[in-house]
């Protein structure tokens, strides 16, 4: 086969002297060939297919395109590969005989050029192969006749990209990675958010020792038959993601995306805008849930952070990194397992229930008042970080709030109504809380709290043996107990934070740590402040102070701890 880049009339002119010389095996100037295939503009929009190089081109809908190449000698091996990208193609390969060189009179003079052009272009040619569809399809012949070959392509569905590769040395070229005898992808493990895939290595890597890497494509729509089809879904400048570090499988939806939620700036996301081609304007397409990652030469891989009970499609492509040409394994699909069904905890009217929630986890509770009721009160005490509470009555959402500390919610009741409570934990760590549901308005176990639950220490009143502190109260008369505990000088805020479980009551403290208890309230909320001086402390020592407020039902809530230090010299 020849490397040509000329228009057809000039191509035919060049063909004439080829047959006036003795026949020889097809060859190519390898140095020139390598230079030309590196120059992407060399074959751009050319109607001539080069020998041994893959070309990419574009078809407008219902507009056929024709390519040519010449085989000089009979019995020449020939392989042609056509790869549709984002639409099915109709293509046909045919051959015409080259014109006779001499006239019937044996003068040896070539026939006029116009007569030879007519002789070639007027002939229909012999059809060798035709195909219609979106599979990567091949024409392979170990012995092809000499002649002018024509490849006709047509897309009747839409404008589309495609790729063509032709060679007269298929045995030695082998640009496409070879598939193993079993080219399927196996799902070896299936979880609620993970799928583990395994596949047999390409013989191109294991036997021929050529550089092969594997690229995985994950989406929720369908399998892809070529990497070209994947690239058509994504933008042309969307680079392959880097392979994960050794020993760590990649989580493509850590992409915080494989769930896959799109952010508000989706218009600027790489990979999800179709670029304008050939002067035709195309509107931006919505973001697609499609991700790809190249993982080197591993042949087992775990995809994580998937959605439970969701079907995903997985495709694997072996890519020859020398030629950048790829071959598709047989894709597969799998549905992740369902979320484990949550056990629903029944709440009893007026009784406090302790709830533990794992990090990012959730718990479901149910409250069904035994009698008709006008109002329902939910009291929530979050022991550590804030938690999210949702309350539904007979399926209708009534409440959705974030709760930190103690909160009380009063909802309108309904006869024979059932309430479903969903509690969602913190992203920082495990959550603990106490919850009380009641249809009796006077049944309140949690004490009321001020908005500010800090303890203030007065530095000017600090002595070598005492400290003076103050805290806010409420209009409701409650019992307050203050406790102290000596700590090391290197006691820091991080240690104090770990001890901020507001649900631990005075019953967990040593009797020796108790300073005093007293009742306090004020009808004027602006004056609901109390002070206390803690005596009998050691000079230059650090102490952790805690104030507990105890409600009528006996339930206690701890204020924020305060670290104080006595003066060393007085």
UniProtKB/TrEMBL annotation:
<dbReference type="Pfam" id="PF19433">
    <property type="entry name" value="NDNF_C"/>
</dbReference>
<keyword id="KW-0677">Repeat</keyword>
<dbReference type="Pfam" id="PF24354">
    <property type="entry name" value="NDNF_N"/>
</dbReference>
<dbReference type="InterPro" id="IPR055271">
    <property type="entry name" value="NDNF_Fn(III)_1"/>
</dbReference>
<keyword id="KW-0325">Glycoprotein</keyword>
<dbReference type="InterPro" id="IPR045805">
    <property type="entry name" value="NDNF_C"/>
</dbReference>
<comment type="function">
    <text>Secretory protein that plays a role in various cellular processes. Acts as a chemorepellent acting on gonadotropin-releasing hormone (GnRH) expressing neurons regulating their migration to the hypothalamus. Also promotes neuron migration, growth and survival as well as neurite outgrowth and is involved in the development of the olfactory system. May also act through the regulation of growth factors activity and downstream signaling. Also regulates extracellular matrix assembly and cell adhesiveness.</text>
</comment>
<dbReference type="GO" id="GO:0005576">
    <property type="term" value="C:extracellular region"/>
</dbReference>
<dbReference type="InterPro" id="IPR019326">
    <property type="entry name" value="NDNF"/>
</dbReference>
<dbReference type="GO" id="GO:0008201">
    <property type="term" value="F:heparin binding"/>
</dbReference>
<keyword id="KW-0524">Neurogenesis</keyword>
<keyword id="KW-0732">Signal</keyword>
<dbReference type="GO" id="GO:0030198">
    <property type="term" value="P:extracellular matrix organization"/>
</dbReference>
<dbReference type="Pfam" id="PF10179">
    <property type="entry name" value="NDNF"/>
</dbReference>
<protein>
    <recommendedName>
        <fullName>Protein NDNF</fullName>
    </recommendedName>
</protein>
<dbReference type="InterPro" id="IPR013783">
    <property type="entry name" value="Ig-like_fold"/>
</dbReference>
<dbReference type="InterPro" id="IPR003961">
    <property type="entry name" value="FN3_dom"/>
</dbReference>
<dbReference type="GO" id="GO:0007399">
    <property type="term" value="P:nervous system development"/>
</dbReference>
<dbReference type="InterPro" id="IPR036116">
    <property type="entry name" value="FN3_sf"/>
</dbReference>
<dbReference type="InterPro" id="IPR056225">
    <property type="entry name" value="NDNF_N"/>
</dbReference>
<keyword id="KW-0964">Secreted</keyword>
